[in-house]
């Protein structure tokens, strides 16, 4: 028997929300299985605690067989946080890059399907479990250039609700958290490393931090067994909707 309070699997933990969440849950006594593509960042994450507390896994969520094999090998977990995701580009629909669309669809939707489908089998056996999807305010409110990114997150919102219907009879909670602007690598990735464009996103306003989201995820996970915090929308105070941001210039 180990002394962990539970086992949690977090995707996209090489930076941002996933990394902060992995560190927080490890501090809270969980054993954390953490995935990401960047080998060095994952190895560094694994070294933040005693060996075995955070188990880093180099994994591309777009690769179905690799995800299925890796997640089956972990065995049962109490919690799955489907966080890995990205936006690429912010062009109007008619100028969009179809390769970017494929990447967002494969990661943000199909990656979650592969992960949840695999992990749900063990949770059904255990008659309990908790799956949380990191969606976005962009799932509920579109904005110029958000098109395919918004659509992927809206698909995950819908999936969350239908998975909840199918999995509640098995004692499994399914939930989503929809953040607004969070200062992570998200905008740097979206604008393909263009620092100026990425920084402009948060200019004159105080965005959420990755730790804000991690703390909220911990609160969701720590709810009593009979309580499912099914949907959370979390925004910076300066952001009223996907399109309304108060900036001090
Ligand atoms: P980051 O870019 O900092 O982190 C994204 C994480 O996803 C990284 O660990 C990255 O790891 C991982 N990832 C991306 N593609 C893949 C892939 N194909 N396979 C495996 N891992 C992948 O951004 P955030 O922390 O902000 O993003 C986390 C989630 O939060 C995303 O789903 C995003 O859509 C969502 N979100 C973010 C908001 C924001 O304003 N920041 C607001 C609302 C939602 P690696 O590159 O190593 O693979
Ligand atoms: C990330 C937040 O508003 O840039 O999901 O789409 S937003």
What is the strand and helix layout of this fold?
Layout lengths: L5 E5 L5 H12 L2 E7 L2 H8 L7 E5 L5 H11 L4 E4 L15 H29 L2 E6 L12 H21 L4 E8 L6 H5 L4 H7 L8 H12 L9 E4 L15
Parallel strand pairs: 1-2, 1-4, 2-3, 4-5, 5-6, 6-7
How would you explain this protein's 3D organization?
This protein is α/β, with parallel strands linked by helices. It has one domain: Rossmann fold. The protein has eight helices and seven strands, in the order βαβαβαβαβαβαααβ. It has a seven-stranded parallel beta sheet with strand order 3-2-1-4-5-6-7, with helices on both faces. Strand 2, helix 2 and strand 3 form a beta-alpha-beta unit. Helix 1 packs across helix 8, helix 3 packs parallel to helix 4 and helix 4 packs parallel to helix 5. 39% of the residues are buried. The mean pLDDT is 98. The site of NADPH dihydro-nicotinamide-adenine-dinucleotide phosphate has 29 residues, from helix 1, strand 2 and helix 6.
